[in-house]
Amino acid sequence: MNIHILLPVVVSFFVSLVTCTTNSSIIQTNLTDFQYKGVSIGGWLVLEPYITPSLFNATLLSNETANDIPTDEYHFCEKLGPDEAKKRLVEHWESMYNETDFQEIKQTGLNLVRIPIGYWAFETMDGDPYVSGAQDYLDKAIEWARSSDLKVMIDLHGAPNTQNGFDNSGLRNLGYPGWQNKTEYIDHTYKVLQQMFAKYGTGDYATDDTIIGIEILNEPFNPDLTKLKDFYIGSYNDARNIQIVNNTIFFQEAFQPIGYWADFLQYGNVTITTNATTNRTITKRANFSNVVIDHHHYEVFTPNQLANNVSTRLQDISNYASSIGKAGHKSIVGEFSAAMTDCAPWLNGVGLGSRYEGTAPYTNDPIGNCTAVNQSIDKWSKQMKKDYRRFMEMQLYQYGANSRGWIFWCWKTEGGATEWDFRALVKNGIVPQPLDNYKYVKNGVDTSMSSKVILSKIFLLLPIFMVIL
Ligand SMILES: *[C@@H]1O[C@H](CO)[C@@H](O)[C@H](O)[C@H]1NC(C)=O
Ligand SMILES: *[C@@H]1O[C@H](CO)[C@@H](O)[C@H](O)[C@H]1NC(C)=O
Ligand SMILES: *[C@@H]1O[C@H](CO)[C@@H](O)[C@H](O)[C@H]1NC(C)=O
Ligand SMILES: *[C@@H]1O[C@H](CO)[C@@H](O)[C@H](O)[C@H]1NC(C)=O
Ligand SMILES: *[C@@H]1O[C@H](CO)[C@@H](O)[C@H](O)[C@H]1NC(C)=O
Ligand SMILES: *[C@@H]1O[C@H](CO)[C@@H](O)[C@H](O)[C@H]1NC(C)=O
Ligand SMILES: *[C@@H]1O[C@H](CO)[C@@H](O)[C@H](O)[C@H]1NC(C)=O
Ligand SMILES: *[C@@H]1O[C@H](CO)[C@@H](O)[C@H](O)[C@H]1NC(C)=O
Ligand SMILES: *[C@@H]1O[C@H](CO)[C@@H](O)[C@H](O)[C@H]1NC(C)=O
Ligand SMILES: *[C@@H]1O[C@H](CO)[C@@H](O)[C@H](O)[C@H]1NC(C)=O
Ligand SMILES: *[C@@H]1O[C@H](CO)[C@@H](O)[C@H](O)[C@H]1NC(C)=O
Ligand SMILES: *[C@@H]1O[C@H](CO)[C@@H](O)[C@H](O)[C@H]1NC(C)=O
Question: Locate the Glycoside hydrolase family domain: which residues (predicted)?
Fold first, then answer.
């Protein structure tokens, strides 16, 4: 037998032998105690209609109506066809973000960008209408981040046949996600993650810690949790086997209660049934280290939450954060926003109204009027600005104090979604600058209503009274 044929066999045998032992040449990222202050680069490499509505509206022909607006990136590409979709997406990728944005992000006091990307940026599946090309922009963004001294979390935001049914996965099918409907979708996701680990966890990318780590999968909704754990274990082991860098692997909480993931992280096991007839089971294992659970928190997706006043919300945030603090594993709040309404046009999806106004398809009684919040932010009343600032301050403080930190969703929008637009909120004094320059929340307590603040205001006004007198 020819030695050239034997060689790969020998090498792979050797490699598989040493994977079981600690690899002394593993590169540490040195970011174990990193405190996250991040923003997501939403709506860029995975389209979201409410972040860039104009892209979606621009697909309308003169003989069409609003019903013909595509609901997500999948249908955007399908409607335009590969050439036109590619042309428009490249224009969008080129224009929505550049190095200047990352410099601004850094100047705002943030230290990380979370970059959502879809599987189709790495490898499409047969019959997909998606166009590829976003991967090059992810790579550009990593260079911008490195130049601005920002860390990058790469976030697999869209899996085949949608892991959550939301438009932000690339394919909207609200309430009926389909990622686990066929093993080929899950297998394709493994394959794409393996490509990501090989590219971003070895070679030049592994020699510095710009890339803090990879999020396996964003927001799986209502999954079979045993299958999801199997997938988390499999992907984690792939990450450690493929990567030479010991970076952070992020597991999204999948809408489970705080504390749900503690045992899983500790024991790293899942038992799956491999033959339903005989009940044959096998247990799969991983030795988890450097794993962070990514919690997401919004207060606008049920009528009950929407009805809460600001004080109730502040209390909710404190309670929520303190339960994260007690969960016994590393966590971040990897998505939250300033939203106290679901009024941003198309937030719930193209063509869908709001629960806040009780407009179709929502059937709840109206809770309020979207006119005020949907105005341009410079027209917001003083009281609104104050309330939004209190809400933001409480979140920044509590998430920072009770977890490894936070990542706001998202850095910027086309303009119609102020509650979700960190840049606009900073410019208009709703996000503190510097970020810890709290005006109302002191040591985690909202002081905006207390006599102390009123008193201090009187003292501030005293010299003016004296001048008047
Ligand atoms: C150990 O790390 C080196 C590079 O740092 C890599 O070439 C080698 O494949 C790794 N071995 C294993 C078993 O992971
Ligand atoms: C997009 O189209 C919808 C429906 O016609 C319209 O209500 C909305 O104002 C448009 N948005 C933008 C940003 O053009
Ligand atoms: C609109 O016109 C285009 C041709 O310009 C045609 O292909 C399409 O079917 C028409 N759509 C509708 C909804 O009538
Ligand atoms: C980024 O784009 C903005 C306009 O959108 C422009 O003002 C700025 O100069 C660009 N920065 C770079 C580095 O090209
Ligand atoms: C997944 O399967 C379920 C059950 O058959 C179905 O209701 C759902 O629409 C499927 N989802 C997708 C995106 O195919
Ligand atoms: C982590 O720190 C060590 C010691 O300072 C250094 O050698 C190594 O290159 C750093 N790792 C990364 C990924 O920057
Ligand atoms: C995981 O391991 C723990 C500790 O050995 C055990 O209590 C638990 O039942 C195991 N869980 C599964 C799903 O195998
Ligand atoms: C499950 O076990 C039964 C009984 O041993 C066997 O006939 C069947 O082929 C098995 N099914 C699978 C999918 O392995
Ligand atoms: C397999 O488990 C189910 C549910 O736990 C049980 O009803 C069934 O009898 C078991 N089948 C066998 C062959 O043990
Ligand atoms: C976990 O670590 C133990 C002890 O080092 C080792 O025997 C086992 O193979 C590891 N398991 C996995 C799945 O890496
Ligand atoms: C990876 O880093 C974690 C701490 O962040 C450490 O516990 C673990 O031992 C490291 N793994 C390797 C293979 O160096
Ligand atoms: C909301 O308020 C505006 C003016 O503040 C008014 O014109 C509009 O009719 C109100 N809309 C609803 C749904 O009550």
Answer: 92-339
